Amino acid sequence: MKKGGGRASIHDVASRAGVSAATVSKFLHGVQTIKPANVARIKVAINELDYRLDPLAADLRRSRRNIIGFIVPDLESEFFGALASRLEILAEEQGYSLSIASSHESEERELKLVERMNDWRVAGTILAPVRSERGLGAERMKEVGMDGVFVDRVQSDARYDTIGVDNARASAAVCRAFCDLGHRHVLLLGLGEVSRNVRLRINGFRDEAARICPDMRVDAIMGDGGVEDLRAKLGKCLDSGRPTAVYSLFQKGTHIALSEFRRRGIRCPEDISLIGFDDADWMQVTYPSVSAVAQPVEKLADSAFELLMERLNADKPVARMHLEDCRLVLRESISAVPDGRDVGKEKAT
Amino acid sequence: MKKGGGRASIHDVASRAGVSAATVSKFLHGVQTIKPANVARIKVAINELDYRLDPLAADLRRSRRNIIGFIVPDLESEFFGALASRLEILAEEQGYSLSIASSHESEERELKLVERMNDWRVAGTILAPVRSERGLGAERMKEVGMDGVFVDRVQSDARYDTIGVDNARASAAVCRAFCDLGHRHVLLLGLGEVSRNVRLRINGFRDEAARICPDMRVDAIMGDGGVEDLRAKLGKCLDSGRPTAVYSLFQKGTHIALSEFRRRGIRCPEDISLIGFDDADWMQVTYPSVSAVAQPVEKLADSAFELLMERLNADKPVARMHLEDCRLVLRESISAVPDGRDVGKEKAT
DNA sequence: ATGAAAGCGCTAACAC
DNA sequence: GTGTTAGCGCTTTCAT
Fold first, then answer.
1. Tens digits of per-residue pLDDT, B328-337?
2. Is 0.90 surpassed by the pTM of this model?
3. Looking at chain A, which residue has its C-alpha nearest residue B146?
4. What is the DSSP string of B87-124?
């Protein structure tokens, strides 16, 4: 009989069906060697009692939770939202639930969340760190030996798989696009904090410039004091010694570039070209629509999950580094340098 | 002694400290009546063993999980991301963890997720339904009597609290803005599926028009066949019998409106004015920047959580309906009707 | 083919 | 103050 207040337990089902809890448990797990008569009675009992297995209690007994943890720096951005979205589906396909948590761009919080995942005894943790694979959260994962992988703001690690996009390659493509259009003075727009990825983008651009377009002048400004600082610095560059092209290294920067162009009446792409890292829907609808490096969010999620699964099933996992390729989406915001102004001035050869 | 493979349990700590598990449990819960000497030894043992309480095991014993479930239709939108983000903080402040899941705009999946929350025996569930408080998920919550509240795409319910924005009021404000600028022919842009909220926005606009601006012509087109259908229909309206103002009833619609204006060389706001429901960062940076109804995301989250908490602590909870006010953000996309063209034609009085 | 028993890690009476 | 005991809901040998 079902006891008073609470919900039906496996024992309630068992006694109602006239079998033992063990048999019900077997039934629930698809064991085939149960007498058909009993199967039938168990089914009836389950229906009558509205019985549902408590997965957490089952996990407790099994000493392993069917949960994958996912820690993101920020849930308000479409990028991480999409990542979470996809991982959730992948996890469920494998019988896990995904536990999503946001560190709100705080390393301290990230640490707390890693610890919570560990307390929860999750099967594995996918960490998209605030800073890098050397940040507080990642380091704690190593300390306590949690199973997991690192994604997005990471390079490579001695013990964990890392999954990221090929920042350098994408930026090289941007460089080539500008170079082909005759641009010889490009401004890179970055932010101080999100260092690693942005640094790779800068270097990727610079290296390619040195290789294929040595007479290209490449300036970079970094908003060390946040986005408003960047806005101010950009304003100065636009007012004097204006470049013919801007490569924004993060989405908000693209936003800022566009609005500063407008504020000054600088026409894009006639006066200046623009490409941004990280594509977004709205970039199709601005005037001009803006060219952007699109990150392969789904592939990132797929790879991260796949590597995690392999790792969970491996005896002695090796640390791998995985880079996904980005796609350069060309829209109206770029054009050839109109006259020889900059090209002529800089062409020394 | 700590046993072989696994992690230290409360018993390991107890025996190492020379006390019983019960005492350690008390210590962990801040019971003050423990002999200082024992407190000290427990602390030492915890440190030496790196002991951490398993919250799920504790919850099991307590027969109540310290988890709040949050089900969103979609994690890739900033709106729900922000909602989740805020709820996560609120939940943790009260000692819960928030379990976030996305129904991916599918009612079937929503149903599954509600059932999972129930299986998990969460303390409460915040549901942002795909359709409404009468959708699959919500109905199941009622059936099984889960504690929770409904948020965003909801009106009112007999048994659950509902928290939403005042669509009608916001739309009335939009109507007044247009009316004051002399607009007498406005086009409303909606989508078939997201019916309830959109309907309220339409009615809110229409009612206000009837009240304060009876000579205003209000047309509405609904993309029954998805966004591309809407785009096509909008195109037709713009080509013949063009209105002087457009009120888009959802964010994607604003996007579409803007791009269709551009495609046709229709100048905004000179030729046509635009206001969109649901504000976004990118609307500041388009040309023109677009006026929008901004939804109070944080307030929504705060109210939803507060009502849930009250409900969890109430003996016989009553169902309340909560509406938050939106803010109309005016930007460049609206202006007065230039000449008497439409005004003159329609003014019958 | 099934059930008894032990126990996952923890808490809560209730004795002492 | 502290330990004993009895579970929370489930799984898993190991007999039978």
1. 999 999 999 9
2. yes
3. A7
4. HHHHHHHTT-EEEEEE-TT-HHHHHHHHHHHHHTT-SE
